Amino acid sequence: MLSLPINDQLTNLQAWQQSVFCMALAEQNITHFKMFSQAIESEHDVIAENILQLFWEKLTVKGAKINFTIQEENFDAIIPETSDHEFYGVYPAVDYCVITNCIFNSFTSKSKEEALNASQTSFATIASFIELQIDEEIDETTLVEEPLFIEQLEVQKTILKMLDNERTPDLIKSIRTYIRSLESTNIGISTS
What is the pLDDT of residues 3-43, one digit of tens each? Predict the structure, then answer.
């Protein structure tokens, strides 16, 4: 696990903050899952998008209900097996699924680790992307100096700063708006 200045803050978030933090990282990186789905000519990305939309509605629309058991079954059915695919795109797609599972867990369990797990997964995506480019393993000292890593850390700090406000639907919507305004995933792929 990367030892980062935000780790303690992530494990001290309230339940709703854990959920929103994970949702924000999923929102930033759903493009990875969409691209993978297009590459294998599946429409699983539609299911993934619908589920992510339900999470946002759950926290911003009064009276919105989600049957987490059914949605989690729907989601589990579309998680790709890395061993079934021989191209890099499956790895960011699986990392997206890990982050989405963190969202489910943040709603259904009392775990304090979900935001931290989502954060670490996002940085792991960056590390594997850099390793693909340089064709060797990257250590933590080198990773934390990479521009993509620095940018992602700033994104996560911004989300945490925004979460340090009173819970309102408008605040939660503003976090989603902020993430969409970035217009790129954590590994720099355009989302627009």
Answer: 999 999 999 999 999 999 999 999 999 999 999 999 999 99
| Domain 8-182 = CATH 1.20.1590.10 | yes
> 84-141, pLDDT tens digit by residue?
999 999 999 999 999 999 999 999 998 899 999 999 999 999 999 999 999 999 999 9
DSSP string, the chain: ----TTHHHHHT--HHHHHHHHHHHHHHHHHHHHHHHHHTT--HHHHHHHHHHHHHHHHHSTT----HHHHHHHHHTTPPPGGG--STTHHHHHHHHHHHHHHHHHHHS--S-HHHHHHHHHHHHHHHHHHHHHTS---HHHHTTSHHHHHHHHHHHHHHHHHSS---HHHHHHHHHHHHHH-B-TT--B--
Show me where the domains of the chain are located: 8-182
